[in-house]
TrEMBL record:
Keyword Magnesium: no
Protein name: GDP-L-fucose synthase
Domain annotation NAD-dependent epimerase/dehydratase: ranges: 10-237
Chain's role: Catalyzes the two-step NADP-dependent conversion of GDP-4-dehydro-6-deoxy-D-mannose to GDP-fucose, involving an epimerase and a reductase reaction.
Length: 321
């Protein structure tokens, strides 16, 4: 392990994605001389291959790892690709933790998600419930692969005393999200859709599903600050939920209205109930986080949506479409 006062080298896998870019922005605003940050994309190496993974760990000799890299997608992409989500994420996760162990990394923070919890459960969901029952069938591949990260963390701790832990974010959105119409999450998908409606002179904004499901959404820059806090200050192996408060859960319909407002769109919002809704809700408790950070201020949803829409409108050249 490293001694206190020594420089930390922090390797971020998936550093070019939605969450990675947000961490990079927060870190750049801080300028902490004791930390050197390295942000990886898939172009630096394919983490589903162990030889490429260990090559990157030898090249950068990280002391700490934030492991974000994953095959990620929304409801509809998951429903059609459960096998791919399971296999690719299992490979990436095993390779990253194995390379971390082989190269003496002191701490790893990996990423689960609130959508991997049991489908039939009590609410609110908390960190003790990860393995309590089968996940929703729509995304079983992604969910089981994510749950195995917690199994790996426990195993590395029991057998080798490693401090590998995980965070469980709720739905994330923000700049650098995936705005593709086919494999995106709900917020970027709706932003893209309304953007196209307006561009084509339309006045009907159609949301897939009933609009009734409830979700907790976290702005990527808020999540970035919380993940950095976990890296520096949270010392358990057990996961920690990083979510907005339970009272801030909102319906898909209300999210669509906030997006419409951010675009100054005054046309009609329609709900296509022939399309799947996914889980009705997955309310998570952030009590553990609130015990550690009682005063953390989350960005107001409307403000974060407005910022994201503005970013999308003025970054058509770099946005993932
Ligand atoms: P993105 O899809 O925005 O980014 C994924 C990142 O993983 C990219 O940097 C991508 O590289 C990299 N990557 C994918 N496959 C490979 C591979 N085979 N080898 C190396 N790198 C790879 O994801 P997010 O930022 O949204 O998600 C980050 C983490 O947070 C993930 O673990 C996800 O499961 C989790 N999470 C996300 C939520 C959300 O709502 N978005 C909710 C809860 C958890 P490249 O850019 O080169 O393709």
């Amino acid at each position: 392990g490293i001694m206190s006062g020594e420089k930390k080298i922090i390797l971020v896998t998936g550093g070019s994605g939605l969450v990675g870019k947000a961490i990079q922005k927060v870190v750049n605003q801080e300028s902490n001389k004791q930390e050197e940050w390295i942000f990886l994309s898939s172009k630096d190496g394919d983490l589903s291959k162990f030889d490429e993974t260990i090559r990157l760990f030898k090249k950068y000799s990280p002391t700490h790892v934030i492991h974000l890299a994953a095959m990620v997608g929304g409801l509809f992409h998951n429903m059609d690709h459960n096998l791919d989500f399971f296999r690719l994420n299992m490979l990436i996760n095993d390779n990253v933790l194995r390379a971390s162990f082989d190269s003496g990394v002191v701490k790893v923070v990996s990423c689960l998600s609130t959508c991997i919890f049991p489908d039939k459960t009590e609410y609110p969901i908390d960190e003790t419930m990860v393995h309590n029952g089968p996940p929703h069938s729509s995304n079983f591949g992604y969910s089981y692969a994510k749950r195995m990260l917690d199994v790996l963390n426990r195993g590395y701790h029991e057998q080798h005393k490693c401090k590998y832990t995980s965070v469980i974010p709720c739905n994330v959105f923000g700049p650098y999200d995936n705005f593709d119409l086919h494999d995106s999450h709900v917020i970027p998908g709706l932003i893209r859709k309304l953007h196209d409606v307006i561009k084509n002179g339309g006045n009907k904004f159609t949301v897939m599903g009933s609009g009734k499901p409830l979700r907790q959404f976290i702005y990527s820059l808020d999540l970035a600050k919380l993940i950095i806090f976990v890296l520096r200050e949270y010392h358990d192996v057990e996961p920690i939920i990083l979510s907005v408060d339970e009272k801030d859960e909102i319906s898909i319909a209300d999210s669509a209205r906030a997006i419409a407002k951010a675009f100054d769109f005054d046309g009609e919002i329609l709900f296509d109930t022939s399309k799947a809704d996914g889980q009705f809700k997955k309310t998570a408790s952030n009590a553990k986080l609130r015990m550690l950070l009682p005063d953390f201020q989350f960005t107001l949803f409307e403000v974060a949506i407005k910022d994201t829409v503005e970013w999308f409108k003025s970054n058509q050249d770099v946005a993932r479409l």
